[in-house]
Specification:
The chain is α/β, with parallel strands linked by helices and 164 residues long. The chain has five helices and five strands, in the order αβαβββααβα. The protein has a domain of 101 residues: Rossmann fold (3-Layer(aba) Sandwich), CATH 3.40.50. A hairpin with a 2-residue loop joins strand 2 and strand 3.
Amino acid sequence: MRDLYGLDFDPRLKAEELPGPLGAQAAPDIIAERQALGDVDSFIFVYPFWFNAPPAILKGYVDRVFSMGFGYAAGAGGAESLLDDKTLLSFSTSGAPEDWVKTTGALKALMTVFDLHLSGVCGLRVLDHKHFGSIVSNTTAESGADVMEEVRSRLDDLFGSAPA
């Protein structure tokens, strides 16, 4: 588990991390993070919507960690995915009602620019994206426990027994 706030992760993409004629140079914190993720079979993101998008810290994490050399490599026709045998599962929350997030297209838009783009570039197979609406400002101990039970159930369905 990677708690980006607990790690004090710096989401800012550095100029030297941008791909150039000689490739891209990962910063020491990114090299360490990629090593920590080396044996992962499924990437599971858990995050709140922030203006109908992932928080900047998660977006920066993906930009820096899943970039060239880990998520993809330069290829003759563009990018060649490097995570083809891995999966992606997302759980998101928002203060907006779940129906609103779906009917306005906010969830579909998020999934297009985040889940589907990430999976397309890196070769990940998307397992699911479960959204919990009306949760941010209305969370009680009981509703939080209900959400966690749904998450455990979904993980059980996909992977077998989920951790408690």
